[in-house]
Amino acid sequence: MVTGAAGFIGANFVHYWAEKYPGDTLIAYDALTYAGNRNSLTELEDAGKLVFVQGDICDPDCVSQTLRDHSVDTLVHFAAESHVDRSITGPDAFIRTNLVGTHTLLAAAREFWLSGSGLPHRFHHVSTDEVFGSLTAEAPAFREDLRYEPNSPYSASKAGSDHLVRAYHHTYGLEVTTSNCSNNYGPYHFPEKLIPLCLTNILDGKPLPVYGDGSNIRDWLYVVDHARGVDAVLSSGEVGETYNIGGINEWRNIDIVELLCEQMDQLFSERPELARRFPHSPCSRGESAASLITFVEDRAGHDWRYAIDAGKIGRELGFVPEETFATGLKKTLHWYVENEPWWRPLLIRR
């Protein structure tokens, strides 16, 4: 059972799992809020490779019924409100989904697995590097044993959910694992985050907003590599342990935007037909996408730098990312160019 299965990372994980483990029964559980898109799963649904359940993780009856109906033995919990800007303007939804929702899942899993079915089980919780706070330029990357110092309502709500998962293991014996990942990018990404926002804005000839001077640093992880990392934890990770999944790939925001512009310029020069499909893009006129870069006022509580120390998962589980940033970004760019019917309707919701 995958919560948040119609969201960005959840959908990519479901596609990965269906291809690698075709004998498994996949339950895709999602409330289909603004960032959930069932179209991301259409191909798998049509092929009979998953069962879709539209449900809220805060609904204990729906969660419990889904666990029972499908004899779920593994729950991978991606569902979360995750956009920092939205958490600043409307934190209530983050507390409800990330804290109350996670507790609802844990309570239902405890009842079903420990008091009911007795199935061997695993509850895997997907968290973020943002729970550790912010790093200076010279500070070592986040390790699993660092103190939590969340700085936004989003990261605070995720930190709380991490603590709940840990508590259910130590108090009740629920078999859990947790992973903290760095910034993901790739296909099926709702176009409000930096990379898909810039990709779609370049194609439509709209400004590319960069906070402050663009010097904030993030570690970037291709979303399919993230799915591989979670797979490694489920297959070989130790119950009760936490694993950082990172891309070993730090970039300044402005450098990412400039690289995207360069790759889009090159793609338009190689494929003249794109000028007809995207006439508003400066690339269609032979101009550089970089002309769209616009610096905007920095957001409140903007953390300076995130970086993941992924040494533990590498040493203990043998996981290393397969994609470089250049190859992963190129795959992402091509996906958005070829899948306009997927993202175009989402711009209204954005």
UniProtKB/TrEMBL annotation:
<protein>
    <recommendedName>
        <fullName>dTDP-glucose 4,6-dehydratase</fullName>
        <ecNumber>4.2.1.46</ecNumber>
    </recommendedName>
</protein>
<dbReference type="InterPro" id="IPR016040">
    <property type="entry name" value="NAD(P)-bd_dom"/>
</dbReference>
<dbReference type="Pfam" id="PF16363">
    <property type="entry name" value="GDP_Man_Dehyd"/>
</dbReference>
<feature type="domain" description="NAD(P)-binding">
    <location>
        <begin position="1"/>
        <end position="332"/>
    </location>
</feature>
<dbReference type="GO" id="GO:0008460">
    <property type="term" value="F:dTDP-glucose 4,6-dehydratase activity"/>
</dbReference>
<dbReference type="InterPro" id="IPR036291">
    <property type="entry name" value="NAD(P)-bd_dom_sf"/>
</dbReference>
<comment type="similarity">
    <text>Belongs to the NAD(P)-dependent epimerase/dehydratase family. dTDP-glucose dehydratase subfamily.</text>
</comment>
<dbReference type="GO" id="GO:0009225">
    <property type="term" value="P:nucleotide-sugar metabolic process"/>
</dbReference>
<keyword id="KW-0520">NAD</keyword>
<keyword id="KW-0456">Lyase</keyword>
<dbReference type="InterPro" id="IPR005888">
    <property type="entry name" value="dTDP_Gluc_deHydtase"/>
</dbReference>
